[in-house]
Specification:
CATH superfamily: Hypothetical protein TT1679
Distance between the termini: 39 Å
Number of helices: 5
Radius of gyration: 16 Å
CATH architecture: 3-Layer(aba) Sandwich
Strand content: 15-25%
Largest sheet: 9 strands, mixed
CATH topology: Rossmann fold
Order of helices and strands: HEHHEEHEHEEEEE
């Protein structure tokens, strides 16, 4: 992967995250789930051609976004680890997530989760989370990790590299029917 392609991955991811932030308004009390297939990013079938170069480029954009917003991060592993997630131990404890005994590798976890695990301060794997928002690069199905109700967020970019891009934020459930009052119908993350 040439330097221009790497720079484009970083730029497009940063711009997509800015689009998400406009809608989701993420802060340090929120959790963002990131799912990524580096194989899809380089134009290959998911799970076939993982690359640390793509993972590193996108991770740097996500880390920069975290520094700006304070949002907590969760990186989804691939299906071989049942889509477990890499989080900081502090996040797992604060949110009372059960830690599981595994460490991601490129062949069982995926390039992004493996790279994130190597870059985080005190990473652990957890099996389930309830994130406030998410970015999915390459159809990795992060929806299972976003709290109800998930609301799609559009970006100026439809893809990162060759990988399809989807994003979502959550909002509180509207309960109570027609008699209920819903202050601020433009709800954002909790």
């Amino acid at each position: 992967m040439d330097e221009q392609t790497v720079n484009q991955l970083t730029q497009h991811t940063s711009e997509a995250l800015q689009d998400l932030q406009i809608d989701a308004r993420l802060t340090e009390r929120h959790l963002l789930v990131i799912g990524m297939s580096s194989s899809e990013v380089i134009g290959k079938r998911i799970g076939t051609s993982g690359t640390t170069t793509a993972a590193e480029a996108i991770f740097e954009s996500v880390r920069s976004f975290q520094r700006k917003t304070g949002v907590q991060l969760a990186f989804q592993c691939c299906e071989h680890l049942n889509r477990a997630l890499v989080v900081e131990r502090e996040t797992a404890y604060a949110k009372r997530y059960d830690i599981v005994a595994a460490v991601p590798t490129a062949k069982a976890g995926g390039s992004m989760a493996t790279y994130a695990f190597s870059q985080m301060s005190d990473p652990v794997l957890v099996e389930f989370i309830s994130a406030d928002a998410g970015i999915d690069i390459g159809d990795t199905f992060i929806g299972m990790h976003i709290r109800h109700v998930a609301v799609p967020v559009r970006s100026m970019h439809k893809s990162i590299g060759h990988a399809h891009l989807t994003m979502a934020r959550s909002r509180p459930k509207l309960i109570g029917g027609e008699r209920a009052s819903y202050p601020g119908r433009n709800e954002h993350c909790f």
